[in-house]
Amino acid sequence: MKAGTYNIDLEFSQILDLVKQLSRKEKLRLSKELEKEIIDIKLTSLLKAFKTDELDQATIDREVEIVRAELYAKRKGK
Asked: What is the pLDDT of residue 41?
C-alpha cells in the first residue's frame, strides 16, 4: 500500500451516499473511471476467450490473403 493511503471497508449504501455528495463534475469523472475499468475487464475476458496456441502468424496471413482475393474478385466482377 502506498504511503498516505488507507483501506477501509464500506457497504454499498455507504459508497452510494458518498457518491451522492460529489459534485456533478466529480460524478462524471467517477463514471468515466468506472467505465474504463469495465471495458478493461471485458477486453481481458474477451482476449482470454480467443487465446489459442493453435493459430500462428502464417495461418493468419493465409486467411487474410484468401479474404483479400475474395473481396478483389467481388469488386472486379461488378
From this structure: 92
In the block, residue with C-alpha cell 459534485: 23
Greatest C-alpha distance within the chain: 68
Q: Give the cell for residue 18.
A: 458518498
- Residue 50's Cβ-side half-sphere holds a number of Cα atoms within 13 Å equal to 5
User: For the chain, first and last CA: distance in Å?
Assistant: 64
Nearest CA to 58 out of 48, 66, 70 is that of: 66
**Nine-digit cell at 45?**
475476458
pLDDT at 28: 96
Q: What is the pLDDT of residue 74?
A: 85
Cell of 68: 483479400
Task: Evaluate whether 36 touches 29 at the Cβ level (below 8 Å).
Answer: no
The residue with cell 502468424 is: 57
0.70 cut: is pTM over it? no
